[in-house]
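Summary for the funding panel

The consortium committed to producing paired sequence-structure records for every protein in the target list. Below we show the first two records in order, beginning with the earlier of the two.
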Amino acid sequence: MRSSGILCPISSLSSRYGIGCLSKEAYDFVDFLKESGQTYWQILPFGPTGFGDSPYQSFSTFAGNPYFICLESLIDDGLLKKEECDAADFGNDPKDVDYGKLYMNRYPLLKLASERFFEKPDEEYASFINENADWLEDYGLYMAVKQDNGGRSWLEWEDDFRLRKPEVLEKEKEKLGDEIKFVYFQQYMFFKQWKKFHIYTKKQGIKIIGDIPFYVASDSADTWANPELFQFDADRMPSAVAGCPPDAFSADGQLWGNPLYNWDYLKETRYEWWVRRISHALEICDVLRVDHFRAFDEYYSIPYGDKTAVNGKWKKGPGIGLFHAVREKLGEVQIIAEDLGYITESVRELVKETGYPSMKVLQFAFDGSEKSEYLPYNCTKNAVIYTGTHDNETTRGWFEDTSDHDRDFARRYMNSMHSDAGGFVWGFIRLAQASVCDTCIVPIQDYLVKGNEARINFPSTTGTNWRWRLVPNELSSALAASIFDMTQVYGRLPVPETPETDEDEAESGSEAESEK
């Protein structure tokens, strides 16, 4: 079935308090998607951000990002006062997320809300803790101990903590009880607000495409609490780390530093941790984009301690066995395989064997060869086509920065000689929408014809990424009408589904709508 959607990180929404979150603006964005005739909203990973503020370097693969908790909802719940939130400094630029100020000023507000909450906790709080104990207990202790260690990575902690000696951890649980409860509160509020929001998206006919990184961060509760899952030595230090080999763009390759999986152990457990990870993500989202899919076939292993990726070697990943385990435990799930970059025939075969749709990026189609596999005539139905992703330039930025040859080739291919950026960008979107691919996803920046000032991420750089935001009232009904028209022309409007009949969901949906 043909469909389309829009890519926009939650953090990129406009909001009153410094970063996009589960506020009224998120509900408004869902309404905009519905008005535009869209089926999907693609977001980035929703975990708590770590190094470089990247959602792909999270402190937990199961936890939610506390920054996404709506402060207005906490005001409505009587846990914060409006004047307290208004007094906090989150920066003065509505187009920018100031992570430094966010870190310094949002957590004190959440801490204040937490203290008021525990004077009389919700009835559902205890159930949430029990239902999520398999990851939440380790995450709460990890974050509390990390805070007590000045924010240092667990690899730098004293051996008693790093090696998780039981008697030491029990003492820490008692000592850091208040900090652990604060972490629990953050997660409870995130998932409480997300559940309410997700009910609303379903009611409006919008499906959420989530994003799951292949690797986890070395500084995470996942690695600290589950060292057996990773390639660690007897002292629980990495024996090898992730990256990618040297190529025409980087003589030294890329040294990412993420710990590698112990696939032999994971296979013995029928990939239980990975199955649980995917299951958890699909409880939050409707479809899951799995990043760096090629590593399920082969992954690049670099000796720990190396300063470059030059000495790395390709090693075999779990292959189709992991996805057999996923199907056995979860049935058929909706997954998008991110198979971009250097792809071998064995990776292609794995994607084909899983049956999952692959990704096609239109910006990659126009190169000097004029024979790219990403050209629309080389695409297949079982694929998701993008004008660009969060790692790409915006289409306007690409139009302005690419070579004359590639720009002219794109114009010739589109049979459009638009010299203005706006005409070119909308022609580019039209090319993606018209493609044979079952699904088309367009970043919101492209519909707004934004330049690279609105770029989300410059790979292999830190300090300036993940910061761009929409400004209030930037998404108009006129824009929604234009998107709807193009979606309709290319047969991608959603087919109405049978309304929910479950009384509880209907009631919750009404509550969610009333929050707006």
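The next record, for a separate protein in the list, is shown here:
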Amino acid sequence: MSQLLLKLLDRNSKVHIVMEGKATNRMFRKHPILKMIVEEGCRLLFKVYFFLVHRVKIKGMENVPKEFERLIIISNHESLIDGVLLWTHLKVNLKILVSRTRAQERHLKFFMQNDYTVPLDTMNPYSLKGVIERVNRGASLLVFPEGRMTRTGSLMKIYEGTGFVAYKTGAKILPIHLGNTYSTIFSKKDGRRRKIFAPISVTIGKTLEPIQLEDMPPKRRKKRAAAIIYKALCDIAYEAANEPSTLAREFIRFCKENGGKTLYKDSTGKEVSYRRSLTGAFVLGGCLSGLPGRNIGLLLPNLTVTALIFMGLRLFRKIPVFLNYSTGPAALQHAIELADLTTIITSRQFLDRIRLNLSVFEGKNLIFLEELRGQIGLKEKLTGIIRGIFPGPCSRMMPGEEKETAVILFTSGSEGIPKGVCLSHENIISNIRQALTKVDVRETDYFLNALPIFHSFGLTIGTILPMFARAKAFLYVSPLHYRIVPEIAYDERCTIFVGTNTFLNGYSKKAHPYDFHSMRYIFCGAEALSDSVFERYAKVYGVRVMSGYGATECSPVISINNALEHEYGTVGKILPGMEHKLVPVEGIDDKQGAVGKLYIKGKNVMTGYLKNERANKKFLVEDQGWYDTGDIVEITDEGFLKIVGRLKRFSKISGEMISLTAVEEALAGQFGERKEAAVMAVSDERKGERLILVTNSRDVEQKTVREILKAKGFSDLACPREIRYMKDIPRLGTGKIDYLRLRELL
């Protein structure tokens, strides 16, 4: 059957449905009963094929409207059989939009010039009028807005014509997501990775109301309509992928599917495949499963063994608690006590490197990697291999287990005592699925992750997401090695890199212009991306740095720029599957509802804070599950987020709210490449508060600072009244300025 379809369908055509030619159409018009018999026969034939070969699963069939005036069906486009698949299973008399140029090719006329297609001349904008007329006459139109089969497995660019037709006709829109047709032999995926018996899923979303753009200037309507179509396809892709599961189940599934392909590699030379990762996780998890208590502390750098211990603990339903070793002994002790840790897994060599006194762990059971290796013998290895083949209870999910805590992380503590954040399986998996709908991570991609795993971005995006994308990751021990990290990117030919502005700035000063030659994406989070860093990577390395925004409590990504939707100066659009609202803040212009304090709700938002009744009461009761980010943001007309500043980083001077973050960003890089600036507010009897500029440059003058700020549109109230020199401005392990420590030093 597969070979028959391949012969019937041209691999490069944009129409993927087998239909009758012109002569047959005339006969069918004379004999409608014959037409119905042939149609039902073809549908039955294809249904048998899809059921037996691809085990098609359809979700949301009840969403297909039974009655409608005008309907446009949109879907992602992954293979030649997409049109056949939808024509076979949808109980709608649909017509498929095809390319007129392709339809006129001799070997395609039979398939593409018939009553089941609507031809479109892509080179003639006026041909859209004919399409609009057909929809207005009641035709239900199937459109693949990408205009071609994907070459990446993810959504490609959306042509504006689809949105324009939808807007002009006022048709309702039915979004559909086709899952895994990219893995079939009918796709343009690398032939070695295609399968004859690849399973397929079809997810049908709820019908969307017609696009209304009358209040928008005509020149912007096409672009806006295309953005609405793209959002609808992203939303249905997330809905299709986000099934309840646990990290252990997903880990087992991906490891079994990808076998000998590399998953993790690190600076020690340790490289493990998906298959060996599963065995290693079972071996390590089995050795640690008998430890007392459910919470197990992890104080380790980015290494392959760290990732495997994390997964191993999850396989045996222990809760890993990642300890932030960059916050100092006091914060570390606070975290240990807060999480009720009796056992901590660490390394003697690592403790020596970070110069941490063992007195911090007084009364706790320390398990060192150096000693753990000696406990793993032949018996443990054989048991791990057997469990990898027959995972048993480890692969099963208890009812509601996806909502249980999967990991405990701690906030940065830049503005107070670090809070323990409880993230569930659902939180982390949802956030990964949300991110993958927007970023086209491919199976051939190679992540370089130097962000600490105790950092939410380093854990979710740098360590776990590559597994979900069937990609691989290089885990490096420290983001502060500015010469080594770019060299790794060059040697390993990594394609995706995650970091903070501080770290990216450091790499850019030490790297060779060719070090990032293989990079497809560089993502920046945790702090604002500076103009100088963005321009240096674009001009010197030829890579566009993408800004994102998130919070540990949101698992962490809230919004991100991508190749399809990017606006410099913003942190991208909010990911699918999240609700948001802006709450006005006194003293800050809300710009008719476009500016306010951002609240987020979604499956990616934490289950709550660890042993913090006051914070949990506000989050769960007072705010009804809406997470208060504490950030003042602006949402542009196109839906992009601009971070105005943290509410705690605003100062009220003479009745006016001043963003300390905005002042810092305006002064960033103004005093030299290696010079830093931090702005703090202190009390002032006359004006309420006044600003102090802290810098590691001795040459900064107040007059120069005032001129810079005024040139960038800041009022006189935003100009610091005092400048203080500090050789080393305190920073956290994530690269952020440690404002709590800085305030103590002032």
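Regarding this second record: The two ends are 76 Å apart (CA to CA). The first strand starts at residue 57 and ends at 59.
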